Fold these 4 entries.
Entry 1:
Amino acid sequence: MNIETTIDLTKVPQHVALIMDGNGRWAKKQGQERLFGHSIGVEAIRGTLKAATRIGVKYLTFYAFSTENWSRPQAEVDGLMNLMVKTIASEVDELNTNGVRLISIGDIQGLPADCREELEAAIDKTKENDTINVILALNYSSKWEITQAMKKIAAKIENGTIDSEGITEELISNEMCLQNIPDPELLIRTSGEQRLSNFLLWQCAYTEFYFTDVLWPDFKENDLYQAVINYQHRERRFGKVSEQLI
Ligand code: IPE
Ligand code: IPE
Ligand code: MG
């Protein structure tokens, strides 16, 4: 795709969030184990990152493992954790060379030690980079995030730092995981499912949703461009009427 003529590079979303869904169904269609789908899914992450960097996206958030995903069969959970460790370890140098800054959101204390250590090392190694920020949502759920934000705010009230009048939208945002990062303008979910599955409930208050039937391992650079083109044809009114936007 000739992105220079099809995408308005001055109106690219700064932050794109992705719910990567359909690895298991993709594998089943090939007569393979679910874990095979997850490993090919890593290729799709690579391609998406390349495409997003090319058009100038600044923040790319991937939903990689939800709090609810611990309920999957133990072998799949173990396989996913192993894949995470291996992938982070093998990709970190290339990410670093390409100016990628890695960030994570979610309860990383709840991850297996090797996974947490690999992740923390990669975050530290890439922390000065600023070409693009890749945010990995790992052991993440929105209700967990909101709950821990409420606890931090309650503690501030208890110790007298603020009173209840001090609770503002800004204060709440600052206790969320993505503080200082703009809310996603565009959220993409693959595999035909049309739900948030406990992802970024606060941050997606005004996000544009794009659903595609493509299964995550089949998601290619052009699929990202298609989503961005679709986004660029929408009118984001933020409560106003069309005429006020011109
Ligand atoms: C998404 O693919 C990956 C994770 C949730 C880790 P799935 O594993 O959910 O694939 P389906 O939805 O079963 O096809
Ligand atoms: C959402 O996918 C979580 C991730 C992509 C990591 P799921 O496949 O777990 O979502 P549900 O359970 O079908 O809603
Ligand atoms: Mg799924």
Entry 2:
Amino acid sequence: MRIILVGPPGAGKGTQAEKIVAKYNVAHISTGDILRANVKAGTELGKKAKSFMDAGALVPDDVIVGMMRGRLAEDDCKNGFILDGFPRTVPQAEALDSLLAEMGIKLDGVILLDVDDDTVVERLCGRRMCKKCGRIFHVSFKPSSKGDLCDECGGELYQRDDDKEEVIRQRLAVYHSQTAPLVDYYGKAGLLLRVPGAEAGDKVLGHIEAMLGSRA
Ligand code: AP5
Ligand code: MG
């Protein structure tokens, strides 16, 4: 399985990727997670990316494409992958097309998680993440049974720096202007699968599996 998850911030890309990875043995590649790990570790890449991320802007295409070229060549991608948050501009999608062509690989589909802006804000204001294992929670929709600790690994839960309402609004604006054109791009390529992302998490997974199954 080689798929892309596209959707606005808070659409549930990370949540669905967790579910898919638990069922199918494929690599989960989230550019946001890779960037946050680099910010935390204080690498050169992290230093470059931080100001863009804090402002809700996109990290420049050349930085992201360079990073993904290396990541897609890693061994765990041989069995398939889910790209979460990449590509998110047309130039990134074109660069990915060239990379995959070089590797002799084809995509199975591009899943668009369709979610309205109000749902995004509600989801992101209540999101909590585990510091240790990265698991995703929500104070109302998916609370941890251990309160402020992860019910999977016991790690501390935290709120992402970019999950403040004004930054969320900016991330949404960036999505509509720079990422939404991918809907057309992958629609024309015959790869786009539109999923109603505002439904409950397991229902969304059911839609994804049905759509992928119908293409197999
Ligand atoms: P990134 O980390 O990718 O953030 P994002 O795209 O804004 O998406 P999120 O991670 O916020 O949301 P999600 O769709 O994963 O939702 P989740 O599953 O967590 O990127 C961060 C930043 O890095 C960018 O702003 C940019 O600066 C930079 N960056 C990253 N990639 C880049 C690229 N390719 N190019 C340039 N810059 C890049 O769910 C959200 C919440 O909703 C959770 O609390 C969850 O529990 C809840 N939830 C999920 N599904 C449901 C459901 N069905 N019902 C109820 N609640 C739900
Ligand atoms: Mg995410």
Entry 3:
Amino acid sequence: MGLQSFFNPKSVAVIGASRQKGKVGYEILMNLVAGGYAGKIFPINPKADDIEGLKCYPDLPSLGETPDLVIVIVPAQFVAAVMEECAKARVKSMIIITAGFKEVGPEGKRLEEEVVRIARRAGIRFIGPNCLGVISPSHKLNASFGGDLPVPGSIAYISQSGALLAAILDLANANGIGFSSLVSIGNKADVNELDLIEAFGSQRETKVIAGYLENITDGNAFVREAEIISGKKPILLMKSGGTEAGAKAASSHTGSLAGGEVAYESAFQRAGVIRCESIKEQFDFAQAFASQPLPKGPKVAVITNAGGPGIMAADAIEQKGLTFARLSDETKAKLAQKLPAAANVHNPVDVLGDALADRYESATEIVLDDPNVDSAIVLLTPQAMTQAKETAEAVAKIAKKKGKPVLACFLGAGKVAAGLQVLRQSGIPQYDSPESAVTTLHAMSEYVRWRTRPKRVVRLFSVNRRKVESIVERHLRQGLLDIGEAEAKDIIEAYGFATPKGSIATTAEQAANIAQQLGFPVVLKIWSPDILHKSDVGGVKVGLNSEQQVRDAFDLMMYRIPKKKPEANILGVLVQEMVRTSGKEVIIGMHRDPRFGPLMMFGMGGIMVEVLKDVAFYLAPLTAEDAKQMLVNTKTYQILKGVRGQEGVDIDAIAEGLQRVSQLVTEFPEIKEMDINPYVVGAPGTTPIAVDARISLEKK
Ligand code: ADP
Ligand code: MG
């Protein structure tokens, strides 16, 4: 593992070690000592001979050796100089605790850049600045001022917020939760979340990677690498909001609907990252992933000594889309033999209020032996005779043998405390409600589903790429970044879309002639590079049935629209064949996220898209499965499939449209945003029509 010296250094120097209690330079040194770190500790402070009995050194050269890890606590303005000294001394790994860099403004940012420059030149990797440090319990290393060393475990934690890390540490220590490592990444000027995820991905003692992030440094690399690591170990992330540049200033439908968070969501999905909504949820998940085998499938059995919690669990299983296991006849017969006559031998298995540990033991064993059961939740309420401790021991003993995940939910406090302790010691995760246990099993089975997903195959359509190249090049050359309806349609036609026939007219007479040639009815649309949403200004007139109606509509538009939009340069109108289909209007769009690249959108289309906001997003390039899943993720899907005897539309054709746009925007990074809205789809077998399209470009 590349960052090994951060977690298992042979020697640690503390530059800025202090004699003064309460100062960070003192606390870190004391944490190192208190944690029982077995390597050499070198406090560096030119003004002190010793600190709490530890010999102090004036500077790095006086150590007579190069420390494996250097922790820096000196004030921000001296950090660059310290970095230079470290470069000279051939130090390779550093933790910069000091704050006062990028987070305080331009001057701090400049300082930080200087530090990065020196480090890069010298090949030094560093964590921070503005961080709490690194904790590695299995190596008894507490190089932080975050709190006491937790017990060793198999969860690695990465936090972009130091304060949150301190809270997590406190929580973990109070509950005996173990970690392989905890890292506060601070400003992540050098080592970032992905470096650590990769390091933990190949670290033997880490089984689960968890973290709290505010942003991701390199979106594309993250998706690529995290996807590989998720295949080996679960990655559980909390991600707080935060506005992302780029999403705000969007002019297309897709752009205005796609906030930065949507891109994160898609990126996490693609990479198999499990998103957690709270610290509690993250710990719920992390403990199960760390201590239990993965479930083979979604079928859950529940064992309980009371009806109420059993029903709560059953409801939650239903709601989450897990399966309530149907026990086999053989299992039921075996249960009936072991349990009193009044017990319920169906799932949820009720061992009754007077159950002692032995009943739990046999019920758990019999249930887990059933091939129809993939996982079990053991519920316990403290009743008069309940043996919380012995039950915990019995459940743990059985769980170890069976190779299926077992989650406990012992409800109560004082009366179950001894049981909880046994569960903790024996690695059976405990939940404070049946719902939390079910939510955790759901996260586990979703992860299994992701891991066993079919290989991604992106279909390549044969298209006229040359044509698009020439339109895009010409626009960029002329500094035109918005491609209007007419040429946007040429582009999508080149990628296999059908569009209504039509041409451009600059006079009423011309418009009438074109209409005559197209055949009635026709549609008239305003043609102006400055009008993005034509209907908003009365710039779309459908169902025109005669030359006279076309002329009138033309005159009316030319009269009204300049009044509404005096600044718009109006070039004429587009006369278009009227698409006559009983089809549905959907939208296919793309917004290029500044961090993760092309983000595809699908939703109910037409002019209502921004009102209804029934849309789904996913990162391009899309596979057929991705495209289908996007459809399924909207409410529109139910309508498209056909409701109450209404015939459905060609779902596969929409999915294909999504894939074609995905190919277009993947092949043309100059396309910044685009919408096909509406994309009119009819019954299966009919050709969908792209009725309107707009594309905007950016210089690459
Ligand atoms: P904009 O989105 O700029 O307002 P559109 O070209 O999408 O303009 O037209 C608005 C609406 O008018 C469409 O959602 C569709 O319902 C209808 N419409 C536009 N063109 C046609 C056409 N050729 N055939 C049938 N309906 C059309
Ligand atoms: Mg439109």
Entry 4:
Amino acid sequence: MNKATRKAVIAGNWKMNKTPAEATALINDIKATIADKKTDGCDIIVGVPFVDLAAAVEAVKDSAIKVAAQNVHWAEKGAFTGEISAEMLKAVGVEYVIIGHSERRQYFGETNETVNQRVKAALAAGLKVILCVGELKDERLLGITEEIVAMQTKVALNEISAEDMKNIIIAYEPVWAIGTGLTATPAQAEEVCAAIRKVIAALYDCTLAEATTIQYGGSMNAGNAAELLSMKNIDGGLIGGASLKAPDFATIIEAAQA
Ligand code: PEP
């Protein structure tokens, strides 16, 4: 398997934006914008806030768009005020969950170990996972990007079976590029995505590594998507800001058809 046989995945991360009514409106906008375009070259996902999930699941019903939550707790149930379990997400019709986003690591104390616990809980409940990894600016400047990303990947995938890997997408998101307007160059993004694929080959095997979808995220937009997505080891994008504008998101989806 190689880039030509891996299906691209374009996923929007809406972060803390949109009420349920606004989520429905944006999904309807996206559907209308892509209606007359070729889209079967990629899977399309929208990652919405918890309170928007039910509305989003309803709004995507007659389309190819899938819905992701932006986090999940590792416990099945219990005294975890404010948290949401994997079973709850499944019950509202969610298919994917984003885990380990750098904003969760940066502002909410997420660690590689809790990321691993969340990945396990999500998979056990039958959810598919978008697992985020990426280095800080200082780590890049120190020249330790690949070590950091390898460690994040290895710990997050600890005790995850080869079978379960079929349900995991990895999103390489350099933290310095998220929401900053700074984008990794296609060469920088490609280098790290290729390194992640090598880590997966070492953890599992080459066949599984070649079959794994690895996205790039970090200020991907309508203008730079085509070049990033043309790289050999970049199989899609996790898109924040630009996913909130239907025409821009649609342009990125179009760029993934090549
Ligand atoms: C993200 O939130 O995962 C992201 C990549 O954001 P942005 O595209 O806005 O940098």
